[in-house]
Structure formats: structure tokens, C-alpha cells
From TrEMBL:
Cellular component annotations (GO), alphabetically ordered: mitochondrion
GO molecular function: GTP binding; GTPase activity
Key word Lipid metabolism present: no
The protein, known as: GTP-binding protein OBGC2
Biased composition (Basic and acidic residues): 458-468
């Protein structure tokens, strides 16, 4: 972590990127900028110049990369990328000659038999010769792979070409041994579960939400056919026997393999999780995820340690018996929201859409911060501005860091104050974005705010105050770091999950 005077603006020396340092919390005086690989020059009113090299944590890269290979804010695009795929061209057929019967006159009976066998070319039902074809070009398929967790690698390699089909391997003479050119294998591209595949600026192709889901995105070219070349005087006679005779030079295009399809695609990753952890940077979301699941997220005491959602699995409640493992769920730790996240500030906007498929939210609040209730309101306000439906989703509030005296002392008053924010009204619609409505959403989305549930316009919902949305299911004071009251919290999360399961 590098400290700089607070009145600095940071400017990249190529002038392409001008940024005010990101303010992690509205009520702190600290600013931070995380950047990969940029040489930054900072200037203040007094024209004091510093040259600093900023590096982004958690991105693996070769130490030799130069500023030219700079990827601007790659963490913002871990979940969105444009790639181009090209299926393989078809292999070529061949222009073939019939063997000259006079050149190889059979000498004896055996030779005659051999000749006959040789001329036993494959024929179609109508008697025409079946001539070999060029191999089919490789198709391109995108499939959901559980082993993948981000789309970052596609920023390094954004072009994929399948192999072309094999040509008909012939020396120009028709023989009974001639075979079709080899078909090329399908190029299979793995993407994380929950990836949505769209045509670039176009229609939705697939939502690869389950392991094994796949979509054929580009079809390989057909192989070319083969044709027989005949001297003019024999052509007429042969054409009575077969249609595969080359009439003139323009027929040669039929021999060439067809080109494979090329498409530009947009891949959008939607995290598939039952529970979404939200909160300001540094609230302790990653620590909580690590405490209650086997996930190993990066944890550090500077904001935005989490650059992409970490997923963890929460087991069912063993105390309920084997048959009651109903609360088994996936948790996603979403990178810290900041004020203005819905407008794209900080890391927020791209991550907000990952809440779409969650059923239960867990607000993590740093109870030792200057104004925890304000922090809580900031996060709620960001959710409301991005998609008011998120505020109708059942949620639990975690007042974290109660091991610290300043948090412990005000826990009762904070709990009471937070419980007071909201109404008792139960929302009328089931809020969790179903897969269908996720699809509907994606056709209109293009990386922008989610569309709300039908019936009530999102404008109407945005006019509602935070107080008009439901209260939390529970407010629990914990210290995830010291393991204080974690069991109570788990109980509440499981109860919340059971509740949403029942209401589905
Ligand atoms: N004292 C105390 N510190 C905690 C507790 N929980 C988390 N922390 C510390 O708070 C800091 C931030 O924790 P993280 O889990 O990285 O916070 P985060 O909300 O995931 O942060 P972002 O990745 O920026 O969104 C770390 O230094 C943690 O050790 C707690 O219960 N008590």
C-alpha cells in the first residue's frame, strides 16, 4: 500500500485515463486507487510530481509486461468479455480423372478380375459414382465448466479458431481407395457456470447455468465435393452414368470447402448463488465467507480486496438430521459497494447484477465504523437505485466486529435503530430472478441495470423510500474474526433460507 498526500489527482502518462482516487467510504479521508501495471504521474496544485507504479493484487501476470499491455481496470471486466470465434473451413474435394482403361489392359483372367474390382467404385442408388468429399470444418461449442470461475482469461485470448477439415487426398486419379477428407474435431471452449452467451450487441443465445450446458456458436464449413474431369468427347457418355462430371471451369468452386462461420460473442458471467453478502468495503464480508464456508477469499485491511465474487458452500444444519439438509446453499461475497456504485463508481455496478439470482441477502456492516447506520443506508440506497427488487428480497443484517469495544458498546442501540428502518409489509411478488426472467432481462440488459418484476414499474419502486421496504429478518451482532456468535448467525441464515424455500 502506497500513501500519497490527499490532494492529489492521478493521471496516467498516456493521458488516456484520468481518475480521481476512489473513495472507499464517504466518511473517511482515505482514498485508494488500485491499478494494474500503469505508470501514473500525480500532480497537485503545487505541481509536485511523483512517479509511481501501481499494481493490482491477485492478478497473475508475468513480471516483464510493459505499460503497453496495460488492461484498464481488469477487475471491472472479470465478468464480461467480447470474443470472436471462427469455425473451421471445410476441406477441399478433388478434381479426379477416370483411369484410362486402354492404358492398363488386363492380360489374363486374374488381372481382369482385379480391374473389375478396382472399378467397383461406390455408387449411389441411382448408379452415379460416390466421390470423396472434403472433411467438415470444426464447429465451435461453448460449455459450462465447474472448474472455471471467471472470464478474465478471455481478455488475454479473445480469438478462437477451430481447425479446418482435411482435403481429399488424391493424386488426381479416381481409385476405389479414395476416402473423404478428415472431419475436424469440435473446438470446445469452457466458461464458468452462469455464463450467458449473446451475439455481440445482439440476441441472447444461451444461459449456461448448469454443468454440462452447452451451445453451438459457430458451425464448421461443409467439405467440397469431388468432380470427374473428362475430355469433351467422353463427357456426354459419362454424364448418363453419373452427375459428378465437371462441365466447365466454373464447377471448380464446388470442389472448394465452404468457409466456417465467424461470430463475435459477448460473454456475461452471472454468479449463481443463493445468498449474497453485501456491504461497504472492509466490512468483513470475505472474512465472514471464510468463517462459515470452506472458501479461501483474499482478506486484507484495505478496501476492494475482493475483486471478483468469491463463492463458498454453506452446509445444511447437521443438528436437524440428515433429512433436513435443506439449507445447503452457495454464498457469494460480492466486492464492496460504495456510494454511487449504481452509477459505476468503484467496483459496484458490475457486481450488483450478481445479486440477481440470490434468494437471501446478508448485509455486513462494520459496527466499529464512524457511522454504521449510515453505512447500512448507503448500501441499501445503492441497491434501491440499481434495482428496487433487491430491497424486497429477504435479508439479515450482520453487525460485525463486536470484539472491538466501540462496536460492542453500541450494539443494542444499533440493533434497535436498524430494526426500525423498514416496514412490516410483506412483498407480494416472489423476488428471486427466475432463470426465465433472467433470460428476459438479458435480452434487454447489455450490462445495465436489471429490470424489475413485471406489473410494478421500476420507476414506481424507485420512488419508494428505504423505509417502505421490508425490515430485516434478523439483526445479529458478531465478530467473524474472533468467532463470536457465529452459530447464531448461521442459525439465522439457515432459517432465512428455509423461509425463502417455503415461499417458492
Ligand atoms: N476486529 C475485527 N476485524 C475484522 C472482523 N472481521 C473482519 N475484520 C477485518 O476487517 C478487514 C476487512 O475484512 P474483509 O473480510 O477483507 O472485508 P470485505 O468486506 O470483504 O472487504 P472488500 O473486499 O473490500 O469488500 C480485515 O482486516 C479483517 O481482518 C472482526 O470481526 N473484527
Amino acid at each position: 500500500m502506497l500513501s500519497l498526500p490527499s490532494n492529489l489527482n492521478l493521471r496516467f502518462h498516456d493521458n488516456t485515463f484520468l481518475s480521481s482516487p476512489i473513495l472507499p467510504q464517504s466518511n473517511t479521508s482515505h482514498s485508494s486507487l488500485i491499478y494494474r501495471h500503469g505508470w501514473c504521474r500525480s500532480n497537485s496544485e503545487n505541481f509536485v510530481h511523483y512517479t509511481i507504479k501501481c499494481r493490482l493484487a491477485r492478478v497473475n501476470e508475468s513480471p516483464s509486461s510493459s505499460p503497453d499491455t496495460l488492461i484498464k481496470e481488469p477487475h471491472k471486466y472479470f465478468d464480461q468479455v467480447i470474443i470472436t470465434v471462427r469455425a473451421g473451413d471445410g476441406g477441399h474435394g478433388a478434381v479426379l480423372n477416370m483411369p484410362n482403361p486402354r492404358a492398363a489392359k488386363p492380360q489374363g483372367k486374374q488381372d481382369k478380375e482385379k480391374m473389375w474390382k478396382k472399378s467397383a467404385y461406390k455408387r449411389d442408388f441411382d448408379g452415379s459414382l460416390i466421390l470423396p468429399m472434403g472433411g467438415h470444418g470444426g464447429d465451435v461449442v461453448i460449455y459450462a465448466d465447474e472448474g472455471k470461475d471467471s472470464l478474465l482469461e478471455f481478455h488475454k485470448k479473445g480469438r478462437f479458431n477451430a481447425k479446418r477439415g482435411g482435403n481429399v487426398d488424391a493424386m488426381g486419379l479416381l481409385t476405389s481407395q479414395l476416402r473423404n477428407g478428415l472431419a475436424s474435431p469440435t473446438l470446445r471452449i469452457p466458461v464458468p457456470l452462469g455464463t450467458v452467451v449473446k451475439r455481440k450487441r445482439g440476441k441472447l443465445l444461451a444461459d449456461l447455468a448448469r454443468p454440462g450446458d452447452e451451445i453451438l456458436v459457430a458451425r464448421g464449413g461443409q467439405g467440397g465435393i469431388s468432380l470427374l474431369e473428362m475430355p469433351e468427347h467422353r463427357r456426354k457418355k459419362l454424364m448418363a452414368l453419373t452427375t459428378n462430371v465437371m462441365r466447365d471451369d466454373s464447377d471448380k468452386v464446388l470442389v472448394l470447402g465452404q468457409p466456417g462461420e465467424e461470430v463475435s460473442l459477448e460473454l456475461i458471467l452471472r454468479v449463481v448463488a443463493d445468498v449474497g453478502l453485501v456491504g461497504l468495503p472492509n466490512a468483513g464480508k470475505s472474512t465472514l465467507l471464510a468463517a462459515i464456508t470452506l472458501a479461501k477469499p483474499d482478506i486484507a485491511d484495505y478496501p476492494f480486496t475482493t475483486l471478483m465474487p468469491n463463492l463458498g458452500r454453506l452446509d445444511g444444519d447437521p443438528s436437524l438430521g440428515a433429512g433436513m439438509y435443506s439449507s445447503e446453499a452457495t454464498l457469494a461475497d460480492l466486492p464492496g459497494l460504495i456510494e454511487g456504485a449504481h452509477l459505476g463508481k468503484g467496483l459496484g455496478r458490475n457486481f450488483l447484477r450478481h445479486l440477481r439470482r440470490t434468494r437471501l441477502l446478508v448485509h455486513v456492516v462494520d459496527a466499529a465504523s464512524e457511522n454504521p447506520v449510515n453505512d447500512y443506508r448507503t448500501v441499501k440506497e445503492e441497491l434501491r437505485m440499481y434495482n428496487p427488487d433487491y430491497l424486497e428480497r429477504p435479508y439479515i443484517v450482520v453487525l460485525n466486529k463486536i470484539d472491538l469495544p466501540e462496536a460492542r458498546d453500541r450494539l443494542p442501540s444499533l440493533t434497535e435503530e436498524i430494526m426500525r428502518i423498514g416496514s412490516d409489509e410483506v412483498p407480494s411478488e416472489p423476488e428471486r430472478g427466475s432463470d426465465d426472467d433472467a433470460l428476459q432481462l438479458l435480452t434487454t440488459e447489455g450490462g445495465h441495470a436489471d429490470v424489475s418484476s413485471p406489473g410494478i414499474s421500476s420507476k414506481d419502486k424507485k420512488d419508494k423510500e428505504i423505509e417502505d421496504y421490508p425490515r430485516p429478518l434478523a439483526v445479529v451482532g458478531v465478530s467473524v474474526l474472533k468467532g463470536i456468535r457465529i452459530n447464531e448467525l448461521l442459525k439465522e441464515i439457515r432459517a432465512g433460507l428455509r423461509k425463502v424455500q417455503r415461499s417458492q
